[in-house]
Fold:
Amino acid sequence: MRGALARLVSAALVVWAAATCAFLVLQLIPGDPVYAVVGSDALVSEEQHERIRAEYGLDQPLVVQYLNYVARLATFRFGDSYQLQQPVATVLADQLWPTVQLALAATALAPLLAVLVAVATSGRRNWPRRVAAAVELVVVSTPSFWLGIMLLTIFSFRLGWLPVSETGGVASLVLPTITLALPIAAVLTQVMREGLLAALDQPFAVTARARGVPETAVRYRHALRHSALPALTMAGWFTGTLLGGAVIVENVFARPGIGRVTLQAVGDRDLPVVQGVVALSAVVFVAVSVLVDVLYAVVDPRLRRKTGVQAI
Amino acid sequence: MSLVEAADLDVRFAAGRVHAVRGASVRLEAGRCLALVGESGSGKSALARSLLGLAGPTATVTAAELRVAGEDAREFGPRDWRRVRGRHVGLVSQDALVALDPLRPIGAEITESLLAHRTVPRSRARERVVGLLTRVGVPDPEERARQYVHQLSGGLRQRALIASAIAAEPGILIADEPTTALDAAVQARVLALLAELKEQGTGLLLISHDLAVVEALADEVAVMRHGVIVETGPTDRVLEEPRHAYTKELLAAVPGSRPRTGRGRPPEGEPLLDVTGVVKRFAGRTAVAGVDFTLRPGETLGLVGESGSGKTTLARVVLGMARPDEGTVLLDGEPWSGVPERARRARRHTIQLVPQDPLSAVDPRWPVARVVGEALAATGVPRAERADRTAVLLERVGLTADLLGRRPAALSGGQRQRVAIARALATKPRLLVCDEPVSALDVSVQAQVLDLLRRLQEELGLATLFISHDLAVVREVCDRVMVMKDGVVVESGPVEEVFAGPAHPYTRSLLDAVPRRVRAALEPPNNALPASLS
Structure:
């Protein structure tokens, strides 16, 4: 109970810190936010200008603006978008589901690929490992927009197997998911393979082999779980890559979603939307770290007492 | 009929560059125990693993004959080996904490052995697991089967490991250092379990560096050195009348068979260390519950007891690393416990630690010169003088200066411990706390390190607090001994008196747990060398 309360407090602190950083950074961007509201080419009279400033609270001292902002955040009111003339909450809620779909699909695909490749290439023979390592290096070093364009060129334009952009169907999710998941899978594979090889060198692996257990079963039943521990430590990076990757993938594939809204909002200096996205990301990060702590305890019984999780 | 038979067996590693086993021949029979004896690196484990086809991916095994369960194992492919492993030949390794998968309940580990050979249908596996745990003497088997290795005590863990090894009823069990890292009393019980399995018809291949364990269990002994079996014969004959020079050397190095150097009477003079009524609690548990003792310059005090008895906590209090909750520690007549670190720092060089495992007690990336140099720097030796002083210290502990550039991993166990001793001596201490200083070493190396400690003590007049679970070692080097149990000193006095006539039942049980031959050497106070071994 006390642990849960402490978690909640620290989660609130993380969201607050992220929101504050976003507020400060956005103040550093030069230019007048009024033009973000009315459009940069619009001609506004002095009087209109003042009215808009007052309407959005931009005429108040920075400290007051900040406190207002925090107060709104604490009550889940993110204000109105400068550009879209609707509440930020509505904008984000409308765009949330496509991104969640994409993120979940990638979250399922990346670890699955990583597990399969890591297990298949952690055997005695060296050459599959070398080939896989080379492929992983290429995938990790490829910019994802280029990867996306290549996939589009081959599978949509040349072969015509999959749609070019969002159609609402599952088929239109395939290429974006692969584009988002491949670089993540490549890094996860490297981490998991290292973990597998380390676990296979442990005495318990020898014991398992001495029972007459086949090598593949030693890897799946014993070593894989050990390799999940170092992979779980990558969760923060994983979440960040998903969110960042969504921005690129949604633009390349012309999908609706948070990533696209974010890019647009940053370009248009639509501060309330950007701040809303930052707050949302912070919440996601906090939720993921709680989930990971639970998963640690599920994977490793030795950690259960410390975290108080009584799972499985 | 022998269940496993190997003749002229060779194991080579790294494309033949390392010849680990050379022309070894062994026969394993039902109900008999063959012991492989030798020091680390002698090829014992490589030989044993090759009988399971588990010598490793880089190993090449060749033999004139290799028969496992009546078949020619030289022709075995991976599938044939899998059929044999666990079903005909089982393996019990050392230290169940790492030899069983820490992420799975022990019941799942035992079930895996059962199902690997389909000896039992899945539906009856649970029942068999409980039966097996009962057979190896694990209490509350149903509940224990759901627990993980880290939740079990050392003895229960090792039993669970044995249960998983015998689950598919192999005719031969390879026990690779099965009782290393266990307390004496626990070791005795695990040995009794192995003896019982032998009685019931399992053939054992016992690998051990501990001759006392070998004596307790083996019918036959094969002594290995540099990959060659140099002597083999019935256990009594080999231990009583060793023929090969190396066997004699091994036997002479066994603690307890060597002459005692500890004195009966404490030296004169003011105590260097005065511990009064020390209590230390951790989160409701009392680790040390009121201990008093003194230590004079030149005196060696043995501290014995099983794991969890509070030895190490007491040592930490003496080292000034833990603050006692009650009681005082005086160093050279001045307060040592309960004073601010500022008041202690200038005197810290007076007490130094010799650790159990020097590999983990020195920075693995640092060369020897830096390891020792750091300690010299801590006592204010100017940089220019450190190299010379380090060389002198190394010479003092019997090492040559050409090791200065080596990193710990490139040193042998004995060399590492000598470096750790040199580091301890660098600050010119007056008191050494030795925490199991030789328990990680082979017997012959053990003897050398003990000789070194003794010589240094005489030359430098050091007081020593010598912590050990090995009563034979304590008897050899200590003047007085304190026996600890549950945080309390249950018995203390001159070594001969305590060992010859233990007053406390716990001391008696510790002494009873020592196998016969070593015990024979422990009991008669002045008859250190049995006639048969001299």
About this structure: Chain B has 22 helices and 21 strands. Residues 521-534 of chain B have pLDDT under 50 and may be disordered. The first helix of chain B runs from residue 44 to 50. Residues 131 and 224 of chain B are 37 Å apart (CA to CA).
